[in-house]
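Please, structure for the following, as C-alpha cells.
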Amino acid sequence: MTAKPSYEELQERLGNLEKQTCDYGQIKEELLKLSHAVEQSPSAIMITDTSGLIEYVNPRFTEMTGYASQEALGMNAANLGEQPREERQRMWDVIRSGSVWQGEFLNKRKNGAPYWERASISAIRDEENVITHYVKVSEDISAFKEAQKALQESERRRYEDQKRMAVFKFANDMALKLMDELRNPLVAIGGFARRIAERDQPQNKLSEYARIMFEQSQKLDSALNRALAHLKAASEEL
C-alpha cells in the first residue's frame, strides 16, 4: 500500500507547481511581447522551414510584396526573387552552416513590379542545436537604389560637362596661341608683298623677298597643322 505523502512533501509539490505556473506565465508574457514586436516591426519578417517553404510572414511583408499571409504560406521563398543560381547557392551554404547571410535581392511583388531588398538571414535551432527553421529580416531599398542611380548619372553628366569645358578652354587657348604665331608671318608676308609691288626692285631683291615669303608661309602652314592636330585629339576625347 502506497504511503500517503507527508504534509511537507505536499507543500513542496505545491510550491513546485506554483513555480511552474509562474514560469509559464512569464514565458507566455514574453512570447506575447515578442509576437507583438514582430507583428509591428517596420522590417519584413519571414520564417521558412529548412527547405525554404514559408511558414510565417508579418504584416510588413504583405505591405512590401503584396502577398497576403494566407497566400505566402507554403510558397517557396526562392520564387519571390531573381537571385542568380551561384549567389543563391552561396547563400544556402552560409545559412546551412549556421552563419548569418547578409546581402541584397532583386525581387518581384505580386503584381510583377521589381523591387530591391536588403536582407539578413539566420538559422533557428532547437534545444539540441539542430537547425529547424530560417528567419529573414529585410527592408525595401528600392528608393535608395533609385537615388543612388540618379546620383551616379548626375556624377557622370558632371564629369562629361567638365571634360567638355576643358576641351573648349583648350580650343580657346589654342586659338589665342595660333593668333600669336600667325601674326608675325602674316606681317612679314604682307610687308614683302608690298615691296615686290613697288617698281624698280632689283632681281636679287625680288628673289630674296620671294624666299622670305616662302619661309613665312611654311611657318604659317606648320602652325596651322599643329593647331589642327591638337584640336582633333581634344575632340576625340569628348
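Residues 62 and 71 are 10 Å apart (CA to CA). Residues 147-236 form a domain with the Helix Hairpins fold (CATH 1.10.287.130).
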